[in-house]
Amino acid sequence: MSCALKSSFSKNSISSQVLCSVYQLVSFHIEKFATSTETVVFSAFTSIRKFYMLYKFKMKLQ
């Protein structure tokens, strides 16, 4: 639900403005959280893969 839609319900009332800013803040934090979670998962996957490759390489040498 966009802010323009919310303000059209009650013409520029304080509650709709507050609701609007809270909504924007929450959606921003959710986006940020999703991005950071993706980054963590990706880096964990990469390090596990590196470890696995190293392990395979060591087994080959023996």
Taking the alpha carbons of the first and last residues, their distance comes to 61 Å
Overall morphology: rod-shaped
Number of domains: 1
Q: Give the low-confidence spans.
A: none
By DSSP, the count of extended strands is: 0
Comma- or semicolon-separated keywords:
62 residues; mainly alpha; 2 helices; 0% strand; rod-shaped
Detailed description of the structure:
With 62 residues, the chain is mainly alpha-helical. It has one domain. It is built from 2 helices and no strands. The chain has helices at 3-9, 14-61. The longest helix has 48 residues, at 14-61. The N and C termini lie far apart (61 Å). 0% of the residues are buried. The model has no long low-confidence stretch (mean pLDDT 80).
Fold topology:
Elements: H1 3-9, H2 14-61
Helix pairs in contact: 1-2
Question: Short summary of the structure?
Answer:
The chain is an all-alpha fold and 62 residues long. It contains 2 helices and no strands. Helix 1 (3-9) packs antiparallel against helix 2.
